[in-house]
Amino acid sequence: MKLILLGAPGAGKGTVAKLLTQMDGSVQISTGDILRGAVAAGTELGKKAEAAMKRGDLVSDDLIMGIMEKRLQEPDCAKGFLLDGFPRTIPQAEALKLLLAKLGIKLDMVVSIEVPRDVILDRLSTRRTCSNGKCQAIYNVKSNPPKKEGICDKCGSPVVQREDETEAAISHRLETYNQKTAPLIGFYEKEGMFVRVNATSSDAVIAAIKNKLGK
Ligand code: AMP
Predict the structure, then answer these.
(1) Residues 83-106: tens digit of each pLDDT
(2) What's the CA gap between 31 and 47, in Å, rounded?
(3) Domain boundaries in the chain?
(4) Is 0.70 topped by the overall pTM?
(5) Within 6 Å (CB) of ligand 1, which residues are found?
(6) Atom of ligand 1 nearest to the CA of 55
């Protein structure tokens, strides 16, 4: 399947994407994961993105489109992809539309996962992430802690609070979402194939998506 997952930080896009990849071999493409991997590896891309990410601002549309133009042409995308955290601005959505037309790719659906702000704030402030740029497994100190405190179950690296998940950075990211990303809902409503899902459980989101796709 070829989906865009829209939603504020903490809405559950990554969790839903991971569950969907198990259904049909579609790949999750998270621009946030790609950028954090680049920052951890100290690449040119990482150096360009790091300051904006720390502040909770968006990195430039050009940088993101450079990443996505290459990523969508990699062979593992042929089976399908779940775009998680991209597009994030109207110019990105417009550039994606042109890119997909150029590559002859048709999206199945755009899903907006909508979760109340208090749930998002609670989730983000209790979320912890594996510091290994190649792993980036997600934990939650309340609902899904690692077996050994502070250590990733999957790769043994330290599990940390992301620098952009302090209270100040979270509220800035939510503001950025409202200003720059929420307008994509109107954009995709006009494009058609848009679905809004109000659900705090990832299983309920998956069920709604399957239902819409007729799977
Ligand atoms: P995320 O993990 O999706 O919340 O992304 C973490 C950070 O990476 C964001 O706060 C932005 O600084 C940056 N980022 C990720 N995806 C994008 C995007 N599509 N456009 C601009 N910045 C992005």
Answers:
(1) 999 999 999 999 999 999 999 999
(2) 15
(3) 2-115+180-213
(4) yes
(5) 9, 31-32, 35, 52-53, 56-59, 64, 85-88, 92, 164, 173
(6) 12
